[in-house]
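Let us work through a complete example step by step.
Step 1: write down the sequence.
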Amino acid sequence: MFDKYIIDAATLRNTGPADAPTGFSFETKLGYYRGIGLSMVEDLVVSIDGEALPREAIRFDDGNGSLTLDEMETAYDRRWLFGAVATITVALAGGFPAGEHKLAFQQRLRVSYLPFPAFNNDEKTVKVA
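Step 2: predict the structure and record it as tokens.
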């Protein structure tokens, strides 16, 4: 529904030392029209040029502290509200690759009234500024 707003391409940046980045990050919004508990986020998948990065490398931060995807499964007291910005950080030696690449992000959500997971996807052609 709001898939085109999931990745904020202008926020893509490398993390770690400038001469030896240890990963990258970007800001994201929920692709669902209502807020959900973080424990209802079944998976977040980050891909570069069609290649999914390891789940263990991804961290989510809604401004209340960074969580691994496994930690999100039991974050019963935290919610991701519609319109709220969260930061996705990915551990990747060397940071985001030089040049233009396709960055894709998928949110798999457990929605109470759906008998199947909701998938929200966004893909943008980006490069680190």
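Step 3: interpret the result. The mean pLDDT is 94.
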